[in-house]
């Protein structure tokens, strides 16, 4: 069907005119075609859809345009039909067809009927024959029903749409082509038609082979001379493709493609709906904000494909904890929310949170026989006690989740007013970090590393600091977590790596001898190629062993791929690799010999407890012995006392750093110390 382009269509262009055996048009005052029936389109030699928005005047033979303009002026001023004879042309140069126009004003537009000029009776007979041909070949289905909604007529297109022969449709009830939902809709509309009201519907019909088809149905009631209801006449067009694309677009806009759960858009709509319902019924609801702990490590270790597989499994487990009336949605990478409406007690929300924590603690099966281990941190906010609107409730549940995560993870926490203040501080930190990254407020301090055999400062560890314009010099513990969550950590890490590479080259030139700098490198940096720091180091042409990258012990559990390929490339460039915080991770000792590692760094937690008969001393001695057997050197971190230093020397430790030698300091101070010890 061609949709009406103007208001008042019920008065101006009844859909029954579409089937009239003469041409019927609805025109704007400037003769733009708003609607045209089947015969009218055939008369002009155009498709009904393409005729809309063309000007009828363009089809009037040039010598008659003056007559047509005068006719339009008279017709628009009259509620009774005005007559005009002229000729119409399909194309310029045609001889033209003599026609008689009848026009009158309806709701600010011009309704126009067109009849051939030769005798009215003969013209109508010819038009009726033309009309029969049009009905049989129409692109739209034409369907007639009696007062009992049984089929009395269907054209070939209508039968084709429904997958029947024309003869097989005769006498069949309209309701037999519909499912239960469609029958309910149609029964209500039949009642409206009996009251004389036309209807436009989008209905799903069942075809002869059982398949489904969506049709746009325009139905008009038929009455006898005494006003008795005879039935209805309908035009039908196939809108299945449009419905499918509309439904697909709606689904994509409202559901998460990976898990199939509602996305943020659908979640917000449902949350607002449930809050209105709770307000109306004087009830309450709980909102649970669920964050998957250690999910980043799963992605880092196994890759995004395995991470996605875990998310799908997690979504299924979370869904099993919900009631039919609850809503579970995925609103971020590893963030889920659950709306729990109609609760009887607050403890009901706690039980759901406990179930969620329990199911997330079970191992997740991944490809290749691997297992993923995560947990969940859950924030709980209640409506109406914790928030007045949906945005505030979500924000408070998010703040409670952060409190659960900071409290040790694998737990749930209710929202409190103190969390609002903490969240505001995090927001300010995020703004400051983005500004600091752009304005280069980060700098490197260096802590000397001493060779325990010679006592010389031969190397140093680069340590990041943030010179905040208001808070002063900040250590990484004050901002690294915020930098990671705001997405600037890779930029900061790239800056630090380049600065360290430049600094070691400058020191070597100043000292006139080899010197080495170590710097922390995350697995995310090793996977990232956008910053090009690998190429930068290569371009400096540093002497071998100028740089050491400190990597986490958990890196040994990474599946083979980009991370180890880039570690191998670093090694080939003369960059060495140190395994940081050794003894605190989850690596197997057998893995140490499989990778290009040059140093083991004993974690400061072991060094802090060193005494002559402590278990920590035994652990340090074992690490040193193991490293030397594998041809690796050992660096002890956090050495603060002479007693600790003496025990490490006795155990055969190669290198050490800590306050017993020097605190982290600017590059100039470390250079002076290196010169002093060398002398």
UniProtKB/TrEMBL annotation:
Domain PAS per the UniProt entry, residue ranges: 127-197
Domain PAC intervals: 199-251
Protein name: EAL domain-containing protein
GGDEF domain location: 283-417
SMART domains for this protein: EAL, GGDEF, PAC, PAS
GO molecular function, one term: catalytic activity
Organism: Pseudoduganella lutea
GO biological process assignments: regulation of DNA-templated transcription
Domain EAL: 426-678
InterPro entries for the chain: Biofilm_reg_signaling, EAL_dom, EAL_sf, GGDEF_dom, Nucleotide_cyclase, PAC, PAS, PAS-assoc_C
Pfam families: EAL, GGDEF, PAS, PAS_8
Domain of life: Bacteria
């Amino acid at each position: 069907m061609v949709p009406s382009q103007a208001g008042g269509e019920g008065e101006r262009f009844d859909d029954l005119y579409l089937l009239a055996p003469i041409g019927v048009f609805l025109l704007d005052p400037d003769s733009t075609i708003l609607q045209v029936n089947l015969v009218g389109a055939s008369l002009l030699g155009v498709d009904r859809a393409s005729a809309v928005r063309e000007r009828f005047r363009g089809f009037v033979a040039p010598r008659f345009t003056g007559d047509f303009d005068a006719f339009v002026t008279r017709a628009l001023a009259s509620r009774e039909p005005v007559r005009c004879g002229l000729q119409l042309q399909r194309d310029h140069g045609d001889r033209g067809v003599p026609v008689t126009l009848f026009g009158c004003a309806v709701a600010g537009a011009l309704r126009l009927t067109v009849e051939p000029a030769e005798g009215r009776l003969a013209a109508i007979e010819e038009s009726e024959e033309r009309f029969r041909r049009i009905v049989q070949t129409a692109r739209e289905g034409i369907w007639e029903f009696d007062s009992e909604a049984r089929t009395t007529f269907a054209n070939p297109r209508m039968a084709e749409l429904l997958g029947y022969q024309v003869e097989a449709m005769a006498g069949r009830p309209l309701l037999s082509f519909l499912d239960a939902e469609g029958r309910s809709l149609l029964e209500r509309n039949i009642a409206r038609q009996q009251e004389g009201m036309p209807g436009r519907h989008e209905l799903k019909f069942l075809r002869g082979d059982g398949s489904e088809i969506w049709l746009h149905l325009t139905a008009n009631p038929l009455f006898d001379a005494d006003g008795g209801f005879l039935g209805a006449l309908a035009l039908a067009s196939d809108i299945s493709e449009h419905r499918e694309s509309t439904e697909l677009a709606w689904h994509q806009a409202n559901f998460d493609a990976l898990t199939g759960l509602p996305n943020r858009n659908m979640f917000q709509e449902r949350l607002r709906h449930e809050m209105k319902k709770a307000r109306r019924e004087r009830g309450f609801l709980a909102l649970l904000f669920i964050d998957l702990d250690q999910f980043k490590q799963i992605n880092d270790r196994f890759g995004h494909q395995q991470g996605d597989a875990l998310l799908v499994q997690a979504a299924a487990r979370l869904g099993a904890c919900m009631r039919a009336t609850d809503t579970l949605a995925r609103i971020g990478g590893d963030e889920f929310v659950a709306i729990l409406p109609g609760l009887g007690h607050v403890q009901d929300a706690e039980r759901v949170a406990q179930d969620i924590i329990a199911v997330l603690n079970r191992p997740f099966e991944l490809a290749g026989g691997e297992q993923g281990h995560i947990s969940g941190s859950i924030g709980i906010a209640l409506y109406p006690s914790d928030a007045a609107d949906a945005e505030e409730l979500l924000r408070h549940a998010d703040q409670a989740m952060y409190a659960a995560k900071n409290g040790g993870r694998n737990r749930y926490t209710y929202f409190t007013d103190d969390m609002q203040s903490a969240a505001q501080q995090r927001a300010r930190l995020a703004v400051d970090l983005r500004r600091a990254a752009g304005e280069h407020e980060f700098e490197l301090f260096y802590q000397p590393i001493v060779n325990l055999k010679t006592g010389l400062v031969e190397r140093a560890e680069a340590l990041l600091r943030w010179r905040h314009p208001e808070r002063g010099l900040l250590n990484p513990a004050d901002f690294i977590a915020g930098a990671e969550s705001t997405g600037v950590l890779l930029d900061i890490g790239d800056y630090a790596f380049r600065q360290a590479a430049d600094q070691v080259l400058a020191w070597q030139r100043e000292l006139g001898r080899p010197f080495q700098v170590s710097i922390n490198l995350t697995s995310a940096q090793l996977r990232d190629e956008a910053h090009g720091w690998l190429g930068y180091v290569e371009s400096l042409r540093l002497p071998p062993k100028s740089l050491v990258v400190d990597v986490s012990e958990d890196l040994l559990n990474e599946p083979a791929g980009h991370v180890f390929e880039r570690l191998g490339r670093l090694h080939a460039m003369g960059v060495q690799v140190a395994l940081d915080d050794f003894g605190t991770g989850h690596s197997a000792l057998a893995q140490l010999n499989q990778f290009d590692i040059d140093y083991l760094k004993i974690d400061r937690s072991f060094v802090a407890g060193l005494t002559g008969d402590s278990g920590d001393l035994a652990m340090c001695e074992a690490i040193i012995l193991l490293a030397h057997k594998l041809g690796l050197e050992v660096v002890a971190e956090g050495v603060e006392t002479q007693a600790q230093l003496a025990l490490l020397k006795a155990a055969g430790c190669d290198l050490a750093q800590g306050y017993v030698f020097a605190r982290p300091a600017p590059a100039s101070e470390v250079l002076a110390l290196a010169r002093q010890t060398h002398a």
